[in-house]
Amino acid sequence: GAVVSQHPSWVICKSGTSVKIECRSLDFQATTMFWYRQFPKQSLMLMATSNEGSKATYEQGVEKDKFLINHASLTLSTLTVTSAHPEDSSFYICSASAGAPRDYEQYFGPGTRLTVT
Amino acid sequence: AQTVTQSQPEMSVQEAETVTLSCTYDTSESDYYLFWYKQPPSRQMILVIRQEAYKQQNATENRFSVNFQKAAKSFSLKISDSQLGDAAMYFCACRTQGGSEKLVFGKGTKLTVNP
């Protein structure tokens, strides 16, 4: 199988604080990880692509200083929402790809619901 | 740039009946993959079916099949013998092979299955 976990599944934080979300590939090495944001009743919007050991590539319009992404190992990527505001409240989903060995298939985590009060 | 269009925001089907969800896409790439993902209320993304663009044969996975019309850039999903558990959001997606590996999603179709 190809299992991706996310932690936490739900987090509530106060406005102005930072929150970190972890994405782990449990049974394969992820050369590339992706972070998506999903608003209610909307599609997934790609925020950034990260490759292990290098800086993340952010999509146009995504504030890289606000959404810090670190891909320090082949099984772990983190998304830190800095100085969170209520408008950052959303559902965040990560996916992981093992690249060519698994035909670039993306495996999705279960998502993290962020609520900023 | 790739685009994926799902023109049906909502669809409904009676249990045991067949329903078809529409998707059109646009890409300048010659080598790409197409996907249908299911997102139930749990919000876990589940891969339903995938189609390699170079394959002429339509992909099939049990009750799920696609109608891939490459020239028309159309990629519809047919669900046969619909079950209550099929109720979910369905997203069509496109990805070029290799390269950036980015998935481009459509806006989704909400499928309701009526008992």
Question: Helices, strands, pairings?
Answer:
The complex is a heterodimer of chains A (117) and B (115).
Chain A lengths: L3 E4 L2 E4 L5 E7 L6 E7 L5 E8 L5 E2 L8 E7 L2 E6 L8 E8 L8 E3 L3 E5 L1
Chain B lengths: L2 E3 L4 E5 L4 E3 L2 E3 L5 E8 L6 E7 L7 E2 L2 E6 L4 E6 L8 E9 L6 E3 L3 E6 L1
Parallel strand pairs in B: 2-12
Antiparallel strand pairs in B: 1-4, 3-9, 5-6, 5-10, 7-8, 8-9, 10-11, 10-12
Task: Provide an overview of this structure.
The complex is a heterodimer of chains A (117) and B (115). With 117 residues, chain A is mainly beta. Chain A has strands at 4-7, 10-13, 19-25, 32-38, 44-51, 57-58, 67-73, 76-81, 90-97, 106-108, 112-116. In chain A, strands 2, 4, 5, 6, 9, 10 and 11 form a seven-stranded mixed β-sheet that branches. Chain A has a four-stranded antiparallel β-sheet with strand order 1-3-8-7, with no helix packed on it. In chain A, strand 5 (44-51) and strand 6 (57-58) form a beta hairpin. Chain B is built from no helices and twelve strands. In chain B, strands 2, 5, 6, 10, 11 and 12 form a six-stranded mixed β-sheet that branches. Classes of the chains: A mainly beta (117), B mainly beta (115). The A-B interface holds A 32, 34, 38, 42-44, 46, 49, 91, 93, 95, 97, 99-100, 104-106, 108, 110-111 and B 42-45, 47, 91, 95, 97-98, 100-103, 105-108.
Number of strands of chain A: 11
* Backbone CA Rg of chain B: 14 Å
Query: What value does the Rg of chain A take, in angstroms?
Result: 13 Å
Helix residue percentage of chain B: under 10%
What is the mean pLDDT of chain B?
94
Judged by helices, strands and strand pairing, the structural class of chain A is mainly beta
Written as H for each helix and E for each strand, in order along the chain, the element string of chain A is EEEEEEEEEEE
Q: What is the count of helical runs of chain A?
A: 0
Number of helices of chain B: 0
Task: Kindly list the characteristics that best describe this protein.
heterodimer, A: 117 residues, mainly beta, 7-stranded mixed sheet, 4-stranded antiparallel sheet, 11 strands, 0% helix, globular, B: 115 residues
